[in-house]
C-alpha cells in the first residue's frame, strides 16, 4: 500500500506526530499518522507511506487522545504491559509495544 499524503490533516479522528521538517508548512519530511478507525499507524516520509502497522487503541476509560502532538520522551524496555518500547506524547499517554500481541489489530 502506498498512499500519497500532500496535507497533514488535523481531523479529529486522527492522531498526528511531527518528527521532522517545519510546522509552518503543510508538508513535513517525516511524521507518524495514526488512523484510529482503521487501527493503523503509518510512518509518512516525504509524503508517502514508508511503513504501516496494525495497532490497538485506548480503552473506553482511557481513550486515545486525538490531535497533533510531538513525542516528548522515549524508553527502551519500560516494563510491564508496554512491551519493549515507549514513546510518550501527552499526559502519560504513549505509543508502546505490548506483552499481549493478540490485542493488536
Describe the protein's architecture and organization.
This protein is an all-beta fold and 105 residues long. It is 0% helix and 39% strand. It has a 5-stranded mixed β-sheet with strand order 4-3-2-1-5, with no helix packed on it. A 3-stranded antiparallel β-sheet has the order 6-7-8, with no helix packed on it. A hairpin with a 4-residue loop joins strand 2 and strand 3. The relative contact order is 0.19.
Comma- or semicolon-separated keywords:
105 residues, disordered N terminus, mainly beta, five-stranded mixed β-sheet, three-stranded antiparallel β-sheet
Share of helix among residues? under 10%
- Physical arrangement of strands within the biggest beta sheet: 4-3-2-1-5
Distance between the first and last residues' Cα: 17 Å
Radius of gyration: 14 Å
3D shape: globular
- Unreliable stretches, pLDDT < 50, 5 or more residues? 1-12
Strand content: 35-45%
Q: Quickly give the structural class.
A: mainly beta
- How many H/I helical runs? 0
The total count of strands amounts to: 8
Mean pLDDT: 78
The helix/strand series, from N terminus to C terminus, equals EEEEEEEE
- Largest beta-sheet details: 5 strands, mixed
What's the structural blueprint in terms of helices and strands?
Blueprint: E1 14-18, E2 30-35, E3 40-45, E4 48-54, E5 67-69, E6 73-76, E7 85-90, E8 93-96
Parallel strand pairs: 1-5
Antiparallel strand pairs: 1-2, 2-3, 3-4, 6-7, 7-8
Amino acid at each position: 500500500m502506498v498512499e500519497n499524503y500532500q496535507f497533514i490533516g488535523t481531523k479529529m479522528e486522527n492522531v498526528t506526530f511531527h518528527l521532522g521538517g517545519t510546522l509552518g508548512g503543510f508538508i513535513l519530511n517525516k511524521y507518524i499518522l495514526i488512523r484510529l478507525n482503521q487501527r493503523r499507524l503509518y510512518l509518512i516520509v516525504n509524503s508517502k507511506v514508508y511503513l504501516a502497522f496494525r495497532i490497538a487503541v485506548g480503552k473506553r476509560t482511557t481513550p486515545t487522545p486525538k490531535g497533533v502532538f510531538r513525542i516528548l520522551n522515549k524508553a527502551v524496555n519500560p516494563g510491564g504491559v508496554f512491551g519493549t518500547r515507549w514513546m510518550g506524547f501527552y499526559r502519560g499517554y504513549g505509543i508502546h509495544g505490548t506483552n499481549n500481541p493478540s490485542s493488536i489489530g
